[in-house]
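Worked example 3. Consider a protein that binds zinc ion.
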Amino acid sequence: MSDVRAYRAGLVHCLDDPRSAGPDACVHHPDGLLLIENGHVAACGDWNALSPTLAADVPVEHLPGQILTPGFVDAHVHFPQLDMIASFSGQLLDWLESHTFPAERAFADRAHADDAARAFLDELLRNGTTTAMVFGSVHRTSVDALFEAALARDMRLIAGKALMDRGPDGLRDSVDQGRDETEALIADWSRHGRLGYAVTPRYALSSSPEQLTAAGEILARHDHVWMQTHLAENPREVALVAEAFPDARDYLDVYDRFGLVTDRSVFAHCVHMTDRALHRMAGCGAAIAHCPTSNLFLGSGLFDLARADAHGVSFGLGTDVGAGVSFSVLRTAAAACDVAQMKASPLNPLRAFYLATLGGARALGLADRIGSFQTGREADFVALDPAATPLLARRLRGVTDIAEILFALMVLGDDRVISRTWLAGAVAHRRN
Ligand SMILES: [Zn+2]
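Given these inputs, the predicted complex is written out as structure tokens:
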């Protein structure tokens, strides 16, 4: 028996990057029909055109005033930093010592990790995020807990245990332990349901060259796993990496030497990049997770979107919670617009929306599964409420232009505008 249901609402999704393909890359149906069959998109279009083709027994839910969009993609977020978001500190390296590492030590305890995993996934879904690439702590328990919770919700999630044999006390593995636990996690979880594994060296200085070598070997051994790490986030970090690897051409080259720069690699931040590194990333299909709220919070710097574009590097948006200040990819998209303004290369609203959906899916190599309403895509989607707050309702009264609506939802919205979130066609969050 197939499970078929239809939704009548506004619909908007991207088929391509509006920067290269123009505004028609975003398709808007003010009165649309989304047909879901067995957890996948079966049709998407205008209500008037499609509704006559619906079988009489297909249930139709009408969501007047609401706008359905593909679920948001968070290309970089830290699960064990859930409880220390919004902690005041200095810049990156001080913040790690004063807030992050103490919070992550608690994840050696499975009960704590289980509790945090539930709250973390609730928070993603409350914010309309249906896929994320997630850092665990150094403890494999943290990733076991997260995968178990995500599998139970049939969520498309990529995660990995942080490799850090040069980490601080209580957050250190060894080369052998890191390798064995990573292999065990891949065997236990990768490709179970919609789960994916990312080999996760924390950053160039948290792992010994031996551990980075092992990470590259694991990545080469499994063609279905990803790699995630941090790159060129903070000037002091970049200087310390250059000191530690005097022969490397730049920071990216450090990872390259260990086989970690591939089309399955996602690098968070990339604020202080050489042209050579951007060229290399574009050439091999590696992607950037642009984390604007985190970069502002820690004073890391302003990501240069125009330079990434000039080199043709793919990028998505990362909340980077706990340095990021919001789980909302909408808010993160608004911050990306702010940062682009500071660099005098404005990011238009349709493209910001693209980055939150299909662009993020492309950065993670998942655009054939998620990120749009093309037929056959997994039915991970959200309902946005343009009247979620009194101010939004006033601002959008009578507005029909979808770019204007989306921009207001990014700038003025957050989890309050997400009225419902679906995973594989099933409701996974409903706003109270
Ligand atoms: Zn991060």
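Take a moment to read the result before moving on. The pocket of zinc ion is lined by residues 76, 78, 230, 268, 320 (CB under 6 Å). The chain has 16 helices and 16 strands.
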